[in-house]
Amino acid sequence: MSFFNGKIFIKLCAIALILFLFEQRTQCQQTILDSTFSFKEGIVKTGAALNIISQKTGFNFTYDSRLVDKERMTVMNFTDTRLNVILDSILKSDSLVYSVIDKYIIISRPESRSQAVDTTSQKVKYITGKIIDNETAEPLPFAALALKNNGKGTVTNNNGKFGMKITPDMLNDTLSVSYLGYLRREIPVREALGNNLTISMKREYISIPEIIIKNQNPQEIVARALRAIPKNYGNSPSLMTGFYREGVLKKSELQTYSEAILQIYKSAYTGTLLGDQIKVYKSRKIENTDRRDTLTVRLKAGLSTCLELDGAKNTFDFLDNPADYTYHLTDIVTYDDETAYAIEFEQRENVDLPLFEGTIYINTVDYGILSVEFDINPKYINKMKDSFVSTNTRGFNTWPSSVKYTVSYRKMDNRYFLNHVRGDLIFTASQKRKLFHSQFKVFFELAITETVLTNVTRFDREDLAPIHSIFSRTIKNYDAKFWGNQDFLRPEDNLLNALKNMNVKLQEFTK
E strands, 46-167, where? Predict the structure, then answer.
C-alpha cells in the first residue's frame, strides 16, 4: 500500500494501613450482599430484575450469560430481604455464588474440588465475553483488555466481543479492561474464567469549566506529545506477538479472508536507524471467488500499512506538519486512572491535498498518545485512487469513497506500546459504459496479544515476511487446525454470517 502523493507520504501510516483498608473493603463487600431491600415490582424478566437492583444499589452485575436467562419471567416481591437471598430467588438457583469487586457483583458457579484441581492442571483455559456500556448495553468496540502483571492482552472486535487464552501461570493475575471515557474494570482472572462474560463499563463524565478548555492551546499540546515520544515510547526494542486479518466483502458476500499469527520485531522509537520486521508464524486464507466474478479486489500491502500506521514511530502527518492543520480541544476524558485531551484536527482550507481529519487522545500528564481515530478528507480522496487496492480486471473503474483508520497504544510500566491498528475502506467500482455500481468493503486489522522486552533480537533475513506484497497472495491454503494455543481476534457478526455461507468450520470462532 503506497501513500506517496506529493506531501501525503504521511508516515502513517505502611502495613497497618493496608490491613485496615483491606478489612474495610471486605466489610463493604459483605455489607451489600447482606443488606436488606424491598421490591414491589411484580412479575418481570430476570434481566429487568437485575437492572432494577443495579439502579437501587448502585452495583452492576457481571456474569456468564449461560448462568442467567435474562428473558425468563420471575417474581420480584420482597420486603426487608437480604440481597443474596433476593438473587437466589430471582435467578432460581441456590448454587450460584456472588462476589463483589468495587461496584460490581460477579455471579458465578462455584468450582467443585475436582474442577479446582483441573483449573490449575489444564494447560489452557479461556476468558471470553462481551464489553458493554452499563447504561445503554451498547457494545464497546476495540476496548483494551490486558493482564496487569503480564505483557498479554487483546482488544474487542467491532461487536464488543473478545477472547483470551489463559495458561496456569496467569491464574493469579488480574484482568484489566480499559476504554476511553470509561472507568477501568479489574477482575481477578480466576473470577473471569469461563465463556460469554458480560462486562459492563461505567462512563465517567468529567465536569470541565469551559474557560479551562478555552485557555488550553491544542497546537501546543500536540507539539508536546511529539516532543515526548522518545521518553514515552522508549529506546529499546520489543518483541510482539500479534494477530492480523484482512478481508474483502462485495456487498455482504465475503470474497477473500486472510489471517495470520505474527511476530514483530519493534525497533526502538529513538536512537536507531533500524526498521521494524515481521515474521509470519502461521497463516491461512479463504477464497470465495471464481471465474464468474467479473471483478475482484485485493488489499495492497496490509502488513506494511500496519507498521506505517504506528504514527508515534512513523510520525503522523498531523503531528509533523501542524501548519497544514487546525486543532480544537473539544473534551477531556478519563482513561484508566488518568485523563486525556480529546483534540479534533482537520486540514486547513487552503491546503489542496488529501490529508486527514479526526481526533487524537493525548494523556494530560505525560503527553503520551493513547489513541487516534482519523480518515482521509472525503473532498480529496479521489486523488488517492490507486493507493489502496489492486485489481487486474480490465474495463472497470474503482475509486475509494471512505478510508478510516484507528490506532491505539497500551501503557505498561510507564511506557507506551502499539496495541491495535484497524483500517476500514469502502470502494465503488463501475464497468465502463454501465449504469450500475458495485460496492466493496475492505478491512485490515492488527491486534497485539503479547509484548516482551527481554532477549529481543532481529529476525534472519530469510524469515522475513514479504510485507509489501498483497498478503492474500502469499498464502497457499486454509488450515482448519490453525489456532492451536494462539490468541485471535473474534470475527464480527457479519463476518461470521459470511463465513457460515462459505461452509467454513466455525467451532474455533464461536468457542
Answer: 60-64, 73-82, 97-101, 104-108, 125-133, 144-147, 153-155, 161-166
How far apart are the two ends of the chain, measured CA to CA in Å? 34
Phi-psi region of 266 (alpha: psi -120 to 50; beta: other; left: phi over 0): beta
Q: Quote the percentage of the chain above a pLDDT of 90.
A: 31
Amino acid present at 334: T
Q: Which of 321, 333, 362, 84 is nearest to 228 (CA)?
A: 362
Nearest Cα to Cα of residue 408 among 459, 373, 357, 364: 373
R_g of the chain, CA atoms, integer Å: 25
| Grid cell for residue 32 | 451489600
Show the domains of the chain with their CATH numbers. Answer: 16-110 (3.55.50.30), 113-205+492-511 (2.60.40.1120), 214-287+294-479 (no CATH)
Average pLDDT over residues 201-226: 80
**pLDDT attached to residue 484:** 62
**pLDDT top residue among 22 and 462:** 462
Q: What is the DSSP string of 195-230?
A: EEEEEEE-B------HHHHHTS-HHHHHHHHHHTHH
Q: Which pLDDT score, from 0 to 100, does residue 431 have?
A: 66
- pLDDT level of residue 145 (50, 70, 90 thresholds): very high
Q: Which percentage of the chain shows pLDDT scores above 70?
A: 74
Rounded CA gap, 273 and 271, in Å? 7
Cα–Cα distance measured from residue 8 to residue 90, given in angstroms and rounded to the nearest whole number: 60
Per-residue model confidence as pLDDT tens digits over 468-483: 777 767 766 556 566 6
Closest CA to 38 of 74, 77, 88: 77
Q: Which of 293, 299, 307, 289 is nearest to 247 (CA)?
A: 299
Cα(392)–Cα(85) distance, integer angstroms: 67
Q: What pLDDT, on the 0 to 100 scale, is given for residue 502?
A: 58
Nearest Cα to Cα of residue 303 among 409, 440, 444, 408: 444
Q: Looking at the predicted structure, is the pLDDT value of residue 425 above 70? A: yes
SS3 content of the chain, % helix, strand, coil (to 5): 25, 40, 35
Question: How do residues 48-77 score in pLDDT, each as one tens digit?
Answer: 999 899 888 888 887 777 778 888 899 999
Location of C-alpha cell 438473587: 87
Name the pTM for this structure.
Answer: 0.75
238, β-bridge pairs: 266
C-alpha 434, offset from chain centre: 40
Q: How many CB atoms lie within 10 A of CB 458?
A: 15
- Dihedral over Cα of 10, 274, 303, 229: its sign: negative
